[in-house]
Design a protein that fits this description.
CATH class of the largest domain in chain A: Alpha Beta
Helix content of chain B: over 70%
CATH topology of the largest domain in chain B: MetI-like fold
Structural class of chain A: alpha/beta
CATH topology of the largest domain in chain A: Rossmann fold
Number of helices of chain B: 11
Number of helices of chain A: 11
Number of domains of chain A: 2
Radius of gyration of chain A: 18 Å
Distance between the termini of chain A: 37 Å
Structural class of chain B: mainly alpha
Order of helices and strands of chain B: HHHHHHHHHHH
CATH superfamily of the largest domain in chain B: MetI-like
Number of strands of chain B: 0
CATH architecture of the largest domain in chain A: 3-Layer(aba) Sandwich
Largest interface: A-B, 48 and 34 residues
CATH architecture of the largest domain in chain B: Orthogonal Bundle
Strand order of the largest sheet of chain A: 7-8-9-3-10-11
CATH class of the largest domain in chain B: Mainly Alpha
Largest sheet of chain A: 6 strands, mixed
Order of helices and strands of chain A: EEEHEEEHEHHHHEHEHEEHHH
Oligomer: heterodimer
Shape of chain A: globular
Number of domains of chain B: 2
Number of strands of chain A: 11
Largest sheet of chain B: none
Strand content of chain A: 15-25%
Radius of gyration of chain B: 24 Å
Chain lengths: ~300, ~260
Amino acid sequence: MFATPAGMAIEIRGLNKTFSHKPAISRLNLEIGAGEMVALIGASGSGKSTLLRHIAGLSCCDKTQGGQVHVLGQTVQSNGFLSRDARRLRARVGYIFQQFNLVDRLSVLENTLLGFLGQIPHWRGCMRLFSAEQKELAMEALARVGLAEIARQRASTLSGGQQQRVAIARALTQKAEIILADEPIASLDPESARKVMEILESINARDGKTIVVTLHQVDYALRYCRRAVALKNGQIVFDGDTENLNGAFLDSLYSVTGSVPELRASGKWRMPPGSAGIAANEIAREIPHQNLLLAAGYQ
Amino acid sequence: MNATRTAKSKPEDGSWRNLVGWAVFALILAWAWKGAEIRPLDLILDSGNMLTLLKDFFPPDFTDWRLYLNEMAVTIQIALWGTVLAIVCAIPLGVLSASNVAPWWILQPLRRLMDTCRSINEMVFAMLFVASVGLGPFAGVLALFVHTTGVLAKLFAEAVEAVDPGPVEGVRATGASALQEVIFGVVPQVLPLWVSYALYRFESNVRSATVVGMVGAGGIGVPLWEVVRGFKFAEASAVLIVIVIAVSLIDILSQWLRKKFL
């Protein structure tokens, strides 16, 4: 129903993901057309982040009946195996993390230049040989997020809001056709959050990029996105116009799971005893064990 | 990692277990006392002998000071090359023996190889290399190189295992290769620690290089061994003074470098 003439940007078929015997995503189907701006909403542990990570090929679905993820007409993963194209596809998909995930000891400009790694010859990337033109493009991207003046500063010296804008600039230099933003504003103050959402909105409106953003603040979803997809217990319980979301539905969406753990610095949060929230904790536990060579698609 | 497991303390039988623990420890110490043939009385009975020996060290005889300085320079040169070669090898080996980077079938063989390099002392390697490449400093360089590679690879790997996976994933999300993830995501995070470890190993290699000469692997150990074997203690004293000053200077220099970098 949301198919656009430009075709599908993201296509998910029967996706299943189980974390230590608890289903995080079950039999999920989703189609997102090119140029859409979609909010993924739902309580913590509903599977929003897990879903986004699967689209980018940062996590793998179940090996049996895992389903498929297609992005820009190519397969990212199928039944628990990343496709050979996963790395090249990642270059065409920008990813914004809740914890920004910049490289602290590199400058703002260098962090932005990392967006070129998927586009330039491998050896040039390894030697950090970025051309003058690429530096200029990176500066343009930084100017667009309003951070050109502090390009030489170390990323660690920036505020959270500024770091998130650098992450967006990195996705811009990446020339990503799709931007996936995982709770981009959850760790930000309201003013920074507004700026970040406005930048994302303009990237969608002006550049026509497809944007999928997970939000747990529904008011932001209502303000910035036309379409919302609501998840509960790893299944889609709503998919449609944000105008059709009503208070009663939202109350039910955020109920049941009740006491959910609050997310703090990545990988450091704890699950309170008796908590029903699973997915976020499970992801955090999975990442440190994830093997870099395997995760990069060298299987 | 396991947040749910809590330490259960039982005060009633805790003290009892403590007592047994200390008793076992005391028994082990007594057992080792016998094996090590410790005779504290000898220190008093033979104190006259030791005083005579000590007197022989003074005044230090600096007649051959040019030779000592020269050999001390060679010692530092041995340590420098031994350490640099080790660092160059320890970077890839360390990264590949970190459990968050490589799969077990790369990790395990590499770790066992590094364990072997580490468990055999520099002096033993020095003897082996003197036999294979002949007398001289080069054998010393190789000995320090092999042993230090084992040590640094382990330390480097531990640093890599402690990195925050976030930035690595940030780099991965741009479509970077595994090598690029290491270069941009891992190395910037571990670099301060790596530099610190490498400098520390350089200091300790300067100390090790002063003795590899005793088995013929060059450096100040050669003249030191000669004067000690010839009972020329006044000259030995001069050599030791040169060593102490040089090692202290190197330690100060490396501390300064470490501060400068971090």
